């Protein structure tokens, strides 16, 4: 299922704060080109992708503030279902003819559950990675220690590592505490811009180890839920 309103608001505030963070700006300005191009896409099910802020060149504090202000004004909405695969494929297409000629192309995907609609997520990942695009992940795992909901996945981080991320240097940053969400986004952006890598990383190569979790688990949970409704 899609993120609830609390998670949506937390996610929005986290990205707004990260784009204004001095450490993120220093990472951008210390890079080889001293600037990056970013776009913010909200996603849900197969046919629910919204461009909240279009492609924007971030080359300093003023541009970063404008981007974050646009995002804050437009907010996020509750969208049905969870199609990580559609989000990845939709985002990959946005790199084409976008007016920028970047040396690296990266898609960030943050979410609180597994894919349950559209193309299987590992198939979409492979298609995106084959185009030279890296997918990084921010699995939101705020319900640890609580009674799990029907669609909750205890090993969401493993799912993201084995089924969602891919490409050179792909990595995840887990979010286990709402208070640390902005910090996690900031850390991920700095790692991406600077080219660094956290300690937990899945090696990407032609050969890929068998997944430790069923990459179709989200679809199976959805089918079970539908059967229970009959």
Describe this entry's structure for a reader.
It contains eight helices and four strands. Helix content is 40%, strand content 13%. The strands form two sheets. The protein has a two-stranded antiparallel ribbon with strand order 1-2. The model is unreliable at 198-206 (pLDDT under 50). Strand 3 (106-111), helix 5 (121-129) and strand 4 (134-139) form a beta-alpha-beta unit. The chain has a single domain (5-229), classed as Rossmann fold. It has helices at residues 5-19, 22-29, 61-74, 84-93, 121-129, 156-164, 181-194, 217-229; strands spanning 36-43, 49-58, 106-111, 134-139.
Radius of gyration: 17 Å
Q: Helical percent range?
A: 40-55%
Write down the secondary-structure element order: HHEEHHEHEHHH
CATH superfamily: von Willebrand factor, type A domain
Strand order of the largest sheet: 1-2
Major pleated sheet: 2 strands, antiparallel
What CATH calls the topology is Rossmann fold
Total E-strand runs: 4
Distance N terminus to C terminus?
A: 19 Å
The shape is globular
| Low-confidence spans | 198-206
Percent of residues in beta strands: 5-15%
Tally of discrete structural domains:
1
Oligomeric state of the chains in view: single chain
What is the SS-derived class?
A: alpha+beta
Q: What is the CATH domain class?
A: Alpha Beta
Architecture (CATH level 2) name: 3-Layer(aba) Sandwich
């Amino acid at each position: 299922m899609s993120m609830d309103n609390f998670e949506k608001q937390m996610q929005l505030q986290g990205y707004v704060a990260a784009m204004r963070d001095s450490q993120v700006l220093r990472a951008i300005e210390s890079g080889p080109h001293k600037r990056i191009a970013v776009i913010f896409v909200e996603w849900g099910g197969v046919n629910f992708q919204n461009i909240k802020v279009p492609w924007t060149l971030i080359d300093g504090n003023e541009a970063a503030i404008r981007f974050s202000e646009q995002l804050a004004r437009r907010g996020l909405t509750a969208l049905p279902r969870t199609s990580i695969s559609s989000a990845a494929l939709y985002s990959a297409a946005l790199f084409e003819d976008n007016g920028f000629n970047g040396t690296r192309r990266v898609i960030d995907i943050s979410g609180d559950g597994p894919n349950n609609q559209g193309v299987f997520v590992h198939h979409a990942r492979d298609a995106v990675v084959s185009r030279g695009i890296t997918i990084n992940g921010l699995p939101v795992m705020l319900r640890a220690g609580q009674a799990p909901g029907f669609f909750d996945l205890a090993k969401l981080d493993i799912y993201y590592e084995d089924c969602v991320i891919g490409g050179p240097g792909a990595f995840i940053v887990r979010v286990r505490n709402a208070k640390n969400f902005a910090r996690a986004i900031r850390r991920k952006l700095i790692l991406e811009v600077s080219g660094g890598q956290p300690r937990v990383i899945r090696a990407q190569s032609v050969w890929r180890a068998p997944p430790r979790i069923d990459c179709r688990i989200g679809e199976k949970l959805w089918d079970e839920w539908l059967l229970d409704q009959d």
